């Protein structure tokens, strides 16, 4: 489809205006969804800051993630990156724990498992101003049980989901203690890259243009599941559930080779853990630069006219 420059400029201005007025942040809680239990989504885990986790069970949740093998969780790079580092530097694996098999952040049952993290492989080209390559693998210091109904890996997408496919997002966010889920359709890539002018090609959108249903703060790193496969990673958005601003996801189809090669570098027979020597704090960003970029590009396009 051919879209006029004028329309693009108008959209960029709209995006920039809305983004400037509202906080643009990485995603955190399911908006407009419904409560579920872990048995519905046995692949999801809660990633927590170990320092807070050790004070009280239920504290320290920062991100979601999805089990993709019996020892590896796939999540977002921004959950582990040191603030504002280019090239990115990741926090030490000793700063995190992973809780699997729980429906409520504060409650443990006989199936709930807590893992220390042996290694974090964050994408080395993760770039915080655009959240490009927002993907990381978390190598657990233990194997997940093979026969628990509430802990099970999720297969990777073999091909991209068609536009309009209804997919599932789930997470705890930072408001609810109980796991929640919402249904979101895949937004056509060309529509997504008009709404978010500087959208890297490896990101995709899912959501309702009418707003109301979305991922939000605390859901970051959690899975977008289409047809029972890991298709996206909850990455960012402008507000949560705002009209015309669907959620932005890392497009898994673009990273399957990266995942397989990072996974193959891990030694599944090795169980060791470095000691806890510093504490992580909640990673938090704004995408103000995105707005600045949009404004700059708008100026360039207007001049070129
Ligand atoms: C990270 O950076 C943002 C702004 O760039 C700041 O507001 C926030 O406090 C920083 N967080 C940490 C943990 O340093
Ligand atoms: C995701 O990436 C794949 C592979 O590059 C691409 O074909 C697809 O259009 C992208 N977007 C979506 C929404 O799947
Ligand atoms: C990850 O590595 C393990 C152990 O080598 C292997 O069994 C598994 O199939 C791999 N999974 C993926 C998704 O690459
Ligand atoms: C495997 C794959 O789909 N790779 C593509 C990811 O996106 C970039 C563009 O950003 C393409 O060049 C790759 O071919």
From TrEMBL:
UniProt keywords, alphabetically: Disulfide bond, Hydrolase, Protease, Serine protease, Signal
Q: Which residues form the signal peptide?
A: 1-19
What Pfam families would the database entry show?
Trypsin
Q: What PROSITE patterns does the record point to? A: TRYPSIN_DOM, TRYPSIN_SER
Q: Which Gene3D superfamilies match?
A: Trypsin-like serine proteases (2.40.10.10)
* A single GO molecular function term of this UniProt record: serine-type endopeptidase activity
The segment(s) forming the Peptidase S1 domain are 30-264
The keyword Disulfide bond belongs to this UniProt entry's keyword annotation: yes
Look up keyword Protease and say if it applies: yes
- What's a GO biological-process term for it? proteolysis
Report the SMART domains cross-referenced here: Tryp_SPc
Q: Name one GO cellular component term.
A: extracellular space
Q: Which family does it belong to?
A: Belongs to the peptidase S1 family. CLIP subfamily.
Q: PANTHER family, from UniProt?
A: PEPTIDASE S1 DOMAIN-CONTAINING PROTEIN, TRYPSIN-RELATED
Name of the molecule in the record: Peptidase S1 domain-containing protein
The major lineage groups are: Eukaryota, Metazoa, Ecdysozoa, Arthropoda, Hexapoda
């Amino acid at each position: 489809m051919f879209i006029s420059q004028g329309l693009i400029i108008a959209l960029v201005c709209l995006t920039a205006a809305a983004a400037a007025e509202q906080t643009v942040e990485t995603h955190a809680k399911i908006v407009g969804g419904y409560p579920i239990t872990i048995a519905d989504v046995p692949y999801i885990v809660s990633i927590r800051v170990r320092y807070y986790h050790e004070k009280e069970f239920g504290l320290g949740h920062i991100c979601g993630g999805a089990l993709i093998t019996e020892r590896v969780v796939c999540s977002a790079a921004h959950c582990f990156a040191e603030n504002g580092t280019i090239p990115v530097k990741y926090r030490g694996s000793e700063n995190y724990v992973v809780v699997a098999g729980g429906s409520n952040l504060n409650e443990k049952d006989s199936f709930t498992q807590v893992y220390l993290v042996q290694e974090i492989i964050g994408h080395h080209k993760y770039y915080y101003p655009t959240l490009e390559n927002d993907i990381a693998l978390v190598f657990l210091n233990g194997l997940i049980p093979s026969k628990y109904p509430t802990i099970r890996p999720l297969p990777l997408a073999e091909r991209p989901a068609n536009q309009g496919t209804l997919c599932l997002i789930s997470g705890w966010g930072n408001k609810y203690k109980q796991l929640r889920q919402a249904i979101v359709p895949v937004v056509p890539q060309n529509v997504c890259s008009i709404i978010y002018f500087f959208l890297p090609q490896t990101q995709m959108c899912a959501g309702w243009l009418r707003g109301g249903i979305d991922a939000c703060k605390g859901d970051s790193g959690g899975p977008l599941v289409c047809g029972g496969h890991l298709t996206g990673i909850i990455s960012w958005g402008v507000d949560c559930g705002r009209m015309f601003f669907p959620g932005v996801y890392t497009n898994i189809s673009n990273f399957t080779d990266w995942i397989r090669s990072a996974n193959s570098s891990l030694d599944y027979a090795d169980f060791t853990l470095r000691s806890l020597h510093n504490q992580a704090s909640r990673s938090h960003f704004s995408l103000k630069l995105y707005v600045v970029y949009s404004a700059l590009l708008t100026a360039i396009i207007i001049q070129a006219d």
